[in-house]
Specification:
By secondary structure, the chain is of the alpha/beta class. The chain has seven helices and 15 strands. The chain has two domains: about 130 residues, Immunoglobulin-like (Sandwich), CATH 2.60.40.3500; about 220 residues, Zn-dependent exopeptidases (Aminopeptidase, 3-Layer(aba) Sandwich), CATH 3.40.630. It is elongated and about 65 Å long.
Amino acid sequence: MFITRRNVLKLSGLTAVIVALLPRVAFAARNALRTVRTGVQPGNKTRLVIETSSRPSYSLSYPSNQLVVTLANTAANAQLSPAMASGTLITAITQIQSGDKLQIVADLAKPIDEIPRDNIMLLNPNGDNEYRLVLDFVAGSGARTATTTATTATAAPAKKSAPSRKYVVVIDAGHGGKDPGCIGKGGTQEKTVVLSVAKKLKNKLDAAGFQTYLTRSNDTYLKLAHRASIGEKKHADLFLSLHANANPRRSMQGFSIYTLSEKASDEEAAKLADAENAADKIDVSGFEQFDKDIRIALSSLQQHAVAAMSVEYANGCASAFKRAKITQQPGPDVRHAPFAVLRSTVPGALIELGHLSNAAEEKLLKSSAHQDKLVAAIVKSVQGYNFDV
């Protein structure tokens, strides 16, 4: 039986649930935990459903005989009593608040392997329910599961096991050919800067054990549809589109990171998407059919998971940039807008490396040393991304 909010009160004889909460911490959470429930699905799968007030940014880890779901910027729910169905692998559920992160720790009767992407769904509100992260899994060997030592405060993060294959990253150097992108006061063209960074990034990621492809390796113009399709054809695990920004305010500087959304997160994000998407106005033939296909993809449940994975990567990338002490454009760490180049079933982000309209940053973006610094930060963000979520 699958548990819903309607039949929670009808359940009896359920496994005891442990709720361990730290004292309330002072932070302004954008998300709140609503319900946690378990159920049994066909094929003897255990289902774990975590319902939140907003779309969650999450990661999974696998300590010994546990599944840990970490929700970013989420507040615990002290009044919550998880609804536990009989016959599942989950024996107890614990909430642990650690700063602005909430860990949902599920104790398991048997070990499990890492949950395949196909068994993870992120569902939008549908009337009776809010956002739901749905995880389906079965007992496994646990051979790829890392063991961690738990404390009373939090579980130590699981150590990542070596990947069974090379993860595929497609690097898109924006603009090119007859489309120079934005041009700095000193004459620096966006297409030249981002191609240089893309080539350096490919070399570093290849050396780090990833399989990488460039959408363009020379000064070539590509339609946005074709760029996105390369990620699909290469069966990419991650798609990174590199750009440099321009702003009417010459004092504006810093990196910014964007993920795909049908609605822009703010006016500036909307204007930037319009500017980047305008590249196809140079040669728009053939884009209409692609857009139709993508609208179908955007309506699928899979696309919701892709959106969540994209945000997860983008948050990690912003953190890597800040740790490297690279100047950030004022505003949120991650913004969202309808970028055509990100319209695919591959998780991805559009990275604005800096502002060519700022004289000082134009000089930085031209310099090999600063490009190396940008590349190092992106490499760390890719290495820290959980490709198996």
